[in-house]
Amino acid sequence: MGARSLLESLRLVEGTEETCDQVLVIMSQMAEDPEGTVRTELMEQVPHIAMYCHENSHNFSACPARTFILPIVVKYLTDCNNQVRKTSQAALLVLLEQELIQKDDVELQVCPVILDLAQKESVDDFRTEAVALMSKLAPLVGQDITRRIFLPRFAELCTDALFHVRKVCAANFGDMCTVVGQLSTQEVLLPKFYYLCEDGVWGVRKACAECFMQVSCACSQEVRRTELAQLFISLVCDQSRWVRMSAFQALGGFISTFADPSVTGLYFNEDGTLVSANPDEFLSTKDEDEEVVVEEEEEAGGGDSSSPAESPVVPVSTDNCDNNNKVIAMDIEDEQSCDTSSPDEGPSLEEKRAEDYKQRQEASNNNKPLLESLQLPAEDSDPFIEDVQSPESFTSFIFWREPLPELPDKDIQRLSTPEQEQAGAFPGAEVDDLTRQLNTADLLSSEDKVETVANIGSEHVLGQLVGETTLTIKNGVVEDVSGSASLGYCPAEDTGSVHSSEEADDKAMLNQAMLDQDVIPQGLLDHYLSMTDPLRAQTVEAEIAKHCAYSLPAVAYTLGRRHWPCLKNLYDTLAADMQWKVRRTLAFSIHELAVIVGEDITGRDLVPVFNGFLKDLDEVRIGVLKHLAEFLRLLKPEIRQEYLTKLAEFLKTDNHRNWRFRAELAEQLLVLLDLFTADDVGDFVTPVAMILATDRVAEVRLTAFRALSGIMKSVAHDNQLLTSMVRRLKQNFAEHHRWCQRQMFAHLCQCILEDKSLSAERYATELLPELLKLHADPIPNVRISVARVMAYQILKSDYLTSAQNPHHCDLLEACTSLKGDTDRDVRYYFSQSAYNSDMVPQDSDFIDMIPV
């Protein structure tokens, strides 16, 4: 109780220096109390006492913080009681944050104690706490003190024998790098960071992955690209699932550190809004990009290829965790589509692929070396394996290869004869040649050897089943070597369909764009694109796709709109994800992505996804609804016009109790008004606002009243539209048989006056007559609302209370009626205008004209 009453005692003895100093002396004596709870409570009161002393420094003979308070805090940093130490550390941070103690005092009194606690001979708990406190103090004491005092000891503790200390160092590594700056980070801290990333304890490596983005921000672009990128890939391929999980969660943030506004043409303004750096300059850049794309189309497809908008495909990369093992899998259709094709319906799948391959060869003779170097997966691949559990599923037949040579019919008959098959009468040369082509893919080098179960080595490739990623075992660690060639982020095409040669040419163009991008290290991009792989959800984290969706705008911003094809199919896969949380994440960020990719790509690639979200669950629809106006503002006018008819669809929800959804719709209606003409607003927006104005929930109604007020302001210049709207308001509210509707009309009239949606003259002509009729309504609640409008708005207007008002006599009559109303609440609200001088104009005698 004594510790708790110290602050109150200071306030009671305020006035003399001696008495105030005596209270602080008593506080110093209480600091010697042997009971830990007393010391803990004293530390909890220290920040409040320090604040009082700072505000009333004239009551003390010397600086209380330096003389009395700080020595107690420093003493408790080495207390034997753990709770006392924790409380003193928190109190020290508060004192620094509130600037109640000087940095010089911290350097002289606090820093030596922290350095002593961080020595190797110190207790393990003390060293761990000293590292944490050192890292928290660094931003508060500044760069100079941190470099001179804390940095050498922090770097030493990064290699401490106790893994708890190393883990705390790794967890706070980013904060320390941010404070000391780029030079000290690269010269002193980065070598220690490399050591921590290869620590034997997975918890230390996990902490490194979590702070990787902060470390990257403190380094130069060259170091980030040449050193940190490979280091991060090692964390992504870590043997510990928890490390991989944290690495994939931080992957998008790390990629965003490669962003360059001069490349993307975008930057964040002071409000944190993403805007274009120079619209005119950016438009010229976009035109140049389009010219490059057209040239690539002509080169890749001979002028016959379709546009990327018609056949979106996924770029495939050849970078893997192990650069020595590069395997690119074909695009395989969904396994369930195997039963939909019939051999009697036309040429076989193999013949179709061979024929299509010849067409592509003839159409791209000039570009043959490029296509061969890319080693693109077959666009027209269909499911051709009936049973994935059969031994044939594991052959190299599932990889791209040259088409089989055509054999004469008699040779085919001879090879398929059962009698010869049983007797072993196959011609040896032809069988060897056929077997060699069936079991050897062009993607495999001549040095690769086929491993069997009996001779599995440390480099064995796993996961060559249809639909799986390619893994390899290295020194007992399973690693993903498939890169972006994984089928996980490639959405399956329609069942039984055969891709056209034009789509293959588009794929070549987009893969060329993938190879041309040099903004992000290819290995990082490959791992990011593989985050939608179903195998990742099994081996890393079930919600890894959600983290991928969360960081997608940052990755798109880093790549820029020119390299959007690298992310196009990934975005489509995430938009079709089975987890609604993934789609919800995309829905909340689609407006930001639209700013990044621009108007053309938005209309071509994002609008279909946006339309799909409109028909999704309410948890997903709320994401597009919250930023509906922002997204529609980025669309072309002709596309934006199509969404007017879809506004009414937001009125339908899965749960009618979800009133916040309708409230958000009402808010968006108000923002949408400047995007459409007055005619469109009157035809499509007004009916939705009318319905929301009659909602069961008051919050929705009030928001809808604001929307109707804004609508009336937007159509006020058109007499015909305004008259039509007023007529509907009269029919639906003022003249309605339900009293609650008539009460809503009074609320709406108040909102219109507050927002000044109509001029006083127009208001007196259009709405005031209907409002005055309600002063005699039989329902007291309606008369209360009318009295509120009178007292708070109408009687404040010079024009409405003057004789120029054509309904001046009716207004006077209504005021007389409300002033003498039989209901007490009605009289109370109307009387507010008489008691508040701000309610009526100072030169108005209108109140005096009302009979008593």
Protein topology:
Layout: H1 6-12, H2 17-30, H3 36-55, H4 64-76, H5 82-97, H6 103-117, H7 124-141, H8 143-157, H9 163-171, H10 173-180, H11 182-197, H12 202-210, H13 212-217, H14 221-236, H15 241-256, H16 261-264, E1 266-268, E2 274-276, H17 279-301, H18 349-363, H19 368-374, H20 409-415, H21 418-423, H22 428-439, E3 461-462, E4 471-474, E5 477-480, H23 501-516, H24 522-529, H25 534-539, H26 544-559, H27 565-575, H28 580-597, H29 599-614, H30 618-626, H31 628-633, H32 637-641, H33 659-672, H34 678-692, H35 698-714, H36 719-734, H37 739-755, H38 760-766, H39 768-773, H40 780-792, H41 808-819, H42 824-835, H43 846-849
Antiparallel strand pairs: 1-2, 3-4, 4-5
Strand order of the largest sheet: 3-4-5
Oligomeric state: single chain
Helix content: 55-70%
Computed CA radius of gyration, to the nearest angstrom: 37 Å
The major sheet is characterized as: 3 strands, antiparallel
Coarse morphology:
flat
Which regions are unreliable across 5 or more consecutive residues at pLDDT < 50? 279-351, 364-404, 410-499, 835-844
State mean pLDDT (0 to 100 scale): 75
The number of distinct helices, counting runs of at least 4 residues, comes to: 43
| Helix-strand category | mainly alpha
Strand content: under 5%
Terminal Cα span: 62 Å
The tally of beta strands, per DSSP, is: 5
Task: Give your account of this protein's structure.
- The protein has 852 residues and is mainly α.
- It contains 43 helices and 5 strands.
- A 3-stranded antiparallel β-sheet has the order 3-4-5, with no helix packed on it. A two-stranded antiparallel sheet has the order 1-2.
- Keywords: Repeat.
- InterPro entries: ARM-like, ARM-type_fold, HEAT_type_2, PP2A_Regulatory_Subunit_A.
- One of its GO terms (molecular function) is protein phosphatase regulator activity.
